[in-house]
Amino acid sequence: MSGQNSAIDRQWNFGVPITALALNRRGDWLAVSLGDGSVRLIEANDLADKPREMAVHNGVSLSLQPDADEHAFLSGGDDGKVFIIEPEVDVPTLLVEHSGRWIDHVASSVSGHRAYCEGKKVHLLDEEGAPVAPPFVIESSVGGLAFSPNGKRLAVAHYNGVSLYWVNAKDSSPTKLFWKGSHLSVVWSPDGKIIVASMQENALHGWRLSDNAEMQMQGYAAKIHSMAFTARGKYLATSGSEQAVCWPFFNGGPWNKSPVALGGNEGRRVVSVAPHPKDELVAVGYDDGMIVMAPLDGRMEMMLFPPVASKGANIVGLVWNAEGDCLFAAQEGGQLMLFTLKSVSRAMRG
């Protein structure tokens, strides 16, 4: 592994735990949710200056995602509220409120739809924020929500599988993908042909929609809290092990294939992964604060930030901007870091 000097360009310490990072659909603004219910907003480029502070929830944001609007963000909190957050507007816009409930998950689509859940109910909204249909009642608490790449279907992860809903169908009966166990989150492959869910049992389970072929990916040391496809959908990068485990999704998919493992194998655990938006490489964050940049073509990995022997160093979020020349990283304790191509080149020379 090359580059023992930190490649950090600049950093901000908020003094409050960071809970999540999100990039808007346009890829030019970053939102940072904090444990006090506030959000910090910062332009996602190498000129990033002091983040703007916005008071949002009377509690904690439980889910922060890009909004259907290319510029905005969507946040659901333990105060029962869903807000739309515009980066250049001083106050958030209240979308819905469920007093006394927790909004565990929010999602949005390219078609303009939004979804959120409270308890066992999933609410689907149109572009104007109006309900599309009565809430979908799930058999258990919802583990995760994800719209298909074209926005036509909504996947809901829950106990014993994933349910798929057509967002414009008059009949709200779902297609059910069954696998025993508790499913915690769900992602679609970029071509919309495969669905993968992470599980309470430290594993992944996937379904190919064309023929219902299934895949089981086991052997993880911990739950997979971070997973994302690489730029062209060739690999699914995942956390939950001592290395970033990247499953191949080309030439027929991961059936009977071994994954590619990125990053060191030295007793630390991967907790966050962020594939580059254009190149076949992955930023990998660990529970001790270390961050590496790991190519998928066998080139040498580079350390961007060394391990930190302190509480709160855990990397809770990694996000590239749309251009792929800036990487933002968040430590749980409240520190946001920015790495740029210039700072990485400087570190390599040093």
Short description:
The chain has about 350 residues and is mostly beta strands. Helices cover about 5% and strands about 45% of the residues.
Which percent band covers the strand fraction? over 45%
Structural class: mainly beta
CATH topology annotation of the domain at 1-16 and 225-350: Methylamine Dehydrogenase, Chain H
CATH secondary-structure class of the domain at 1-16 and 225-350: Mainly Beta
Poorly predicted parts: none
Question: What does this 3D model show about the protein?
Answer:
- The protein is an all-beta fold and 350 residues long.
- It has a domain of 142 residues: YVTN repeat-like/Quinoprotein amine dehydrogenase (Methylamine Dehydrogenase, Chain H), CATH 2.130.10.10.
- It contains one helix and 30 strands.
- A six-stranded antiparallel sheet has the order 14-15-16-17-18-19, with no helix packed on it. A four-stranded antiparallel sheet has the order 1-30-29-28. Strands 2-3-4-5 form a four-stranded antiparallel sheet, with no helix packed on it.
- Strand 18 and strand 19 form a beta hairpin.
- The chain is globular.
Question: What features would you highlight for this structure?
Answer:
single chain; 350 residues; mainly beta; Methylamine Dehydrogenase, Chain H; 6-stranded antiparallel beta sheet; 4-stranded antiparallel beta sheet; 30 strands; 47% strand
